[in-house]
Write a structure and sequence with these properties.
The chain has about 475 residues and is mainly α. It is built from 21 helices and 5 strands. α4 (about 85-110) packs across α5 and α9 (about 180-200) runs antiparallel to α15 (about 290-310).
Length: about 475
């Protein structure tokens, strides 16, 4: 417990120190974070049963991440008032979640290995710090998948202590993205099979994990029953459509290889077989059961990911679809570190605490550990004021000009709601992003002030008279 607390304190402490602006600078979230804040608002009223939207027109399976963000918004903004805007409270909570995930990884690895593995992980994460400090969902999956993989490796090597961690991380993943409905059962199932084959099955060991699984299943089952067939019917529809997959197998392999070697070079990309070969070789040669099982599970994850890239991803030009797979190279680095630490002899205090000090140093000096707030736009209050002035107390009815809703509108509508202003979207097609609460009713249409959202093009005046603008969006009448 002391090591967990130490690792958690170092990680969260450094994230807070590097991002102290959260306690003073108001952030006005737009883009995907703005759309997510809409459903966080539903979670604050316990009305949310699904996850974030997908560009394929459905929602991901569950609301776990968003209930956690809702709690953070309520605690740090609404109740304690230590942050100036709701989004700041959500972001602080996600820092704590990621620190929890990696601190638990340290605990599972255990002994003197854990702190050194954390140092190795943070050194690699320094190449892409958004893995630990970015609230975009594809980045959030990385710490969670790392914990899931490490906990599965522990269970597969015969340790029942962290069955709860498999269930917890697996539950968050299954809620976060539909593809984890494939990854989580398969990888956890392989780990469970190896565990039962070695130790047998004892109900008492599994009860805490089964209880956690039941909690995560509840909202998904309830939503499916209330809105049959729910989101699962849409997943089946997408999977069987021409939009899903159909990519050449060599391109799929190259897509997976990118997470080991970020390059567009075809010859290098085709070297994607080398990581799999290294994983399998290590799994057959390494004596440590935890490392050996983890490498085998990493090979399973890699195979599933190749299949996903081949049969499930619609466009391989988007690397964010597989950010979670970074957990596999990270585990490989952890395995190498474990082998090195097992051969290292030194003073006890240095072995146990020096790596945590070095973690703090790395996070202090690498610029990227300060959060990039790309979705923040301080122009939100002025834009809302301009629209509210023209609406004169009427609902603001937004017609979408063209085929693009734009990244600003969902977050702007959420901010309007916070300010007591009714803003809605005329076209119900956009319900999968804005939810039904921001789709105009008949009364809104009759009583409202109608504006058209058009895309701003540099050097080109929008068609119509512009009354407000923000980011890539202009509002014209």
């Amino acid at each position: 417990m002391k090591k967990w607390l130490a690792a958690f304190a170092v990680l969260l402490g450094m994230l807070v120190i590097r991002n102290w602006f959260l306690f003073s600078a108001p952030l006005y979230e737009l883009g995907d974070t703005g759309a997510n804040s809409i459903i966080v608002g539903q979670a604050k009223h316990f009305d949310l049963l699904v996850g974030n939207y997908s560009r394929q027109g459905f929602n991901h399976p569950g609301p776990a991440y968003f209930y956690l963000q809702a709690f953070g918004e309520w605690l740090f903004h609404d109740t304690l008032k230590i942050v100036p805007t709701p989004w700041n409270g959500q972001l602080f909570t996600l820092y704590a979640l990621n620190a929890f995930m990696f601190a638990t990884v340290v605990t599972i690895i255990g002994g003197r290995r854990g702190p050194w593995v954390l140092l190795a992980l943070i050194a690699l994460i320094a190449l892409q710090p958004q893995i630990i400090n970015n609230a975009w969902m594809p980045f959030l999956y990385v710490p969670t998948f790392m914990l899931f993989l490490v906990a599965c490796a522990s269970v597969a090597s015969g340790r029942p202590t962290y069955l709860w961690a498999v269930a917890l991380a697996g539950g968050f993943l299954a809620h976060g993205h539909a593809v984890f409905l494939m990854f989580v059962p398969v990888v956890a199932g392989v780990a469970a099979f190896l565990f039962i084959r070695g130790r047998g099955f004892r109900w008492r060991e599994w009860l805490p994990a089964l209880g956690i699984v039941a909690v995560f299943l509840f909202p998904m089952v309830l939503n499916t029953v209330l809105h049959w067939p729910g989101e699962f019917g849409k997943y089946v529809g997408y999977g069987s459509s021409s939009r899903a997959g159909g990519n050449p197998i060599l391109h799929a392999v190259g897509y997976v290889a990118w997470y080991w070697w970020p390059t567009k070079s075809v010859p290098v990309a085709l070297m994607g077989v080398l990581p799999v070969a290294a994983l399998i070789y290590g799994a057959t040669r390494v004596k440590d059961p935890f490392v050996r099982r983890g490498l085998w599970l990493s090979a399973v994850v890699t195979g599933l990911f190749v299949f996903y890239a081949y049969a499930g991803i619609d466009y391989l030009g988007d690397p964010y679809m597989g950010f979670f797979y970074w957990a596999v190279p990270l585990f490989f680095a952890a395995a190498v570190t474990i082998g090195a630490v097992d051969r290292f002899r030194g003073p006890g205090w240095a072995v146990q605490w020096a790596p945590l000090v070095l973690v703090a140093v790395v996070m202090a000096v690498v610029p990227g550990f300060r959060t990039i707030t790309n979705d923040n736009d301080p122009a939100v209050p002025a834009t809302l004021a301009a629209l509210e002035s023209r609406a004169a107390g009427r609902p603001i009815v937004v017609e979408i000009g063209g085929s693009d809703i734009g990244p600003e509108l969902p977050g702007l509508a959420k901010w309007a709601q916070r300010e007591g202003i009714r803003m809605c979207v005329l076209d119900p097609h956009w319900q999968f992003i804005t939810t039904s609460q921001f789709i105009c009713t008949d009364a809104d249409v009759v009583q409202g002030f109608r504006v058209i959202r058009v895309k701003r093009v540099p050097g080109q005046a929008p068609i119509g008279r512009e009354i407000a603008s923000i980011g890539h969006s202009a509002f014209v009448v």
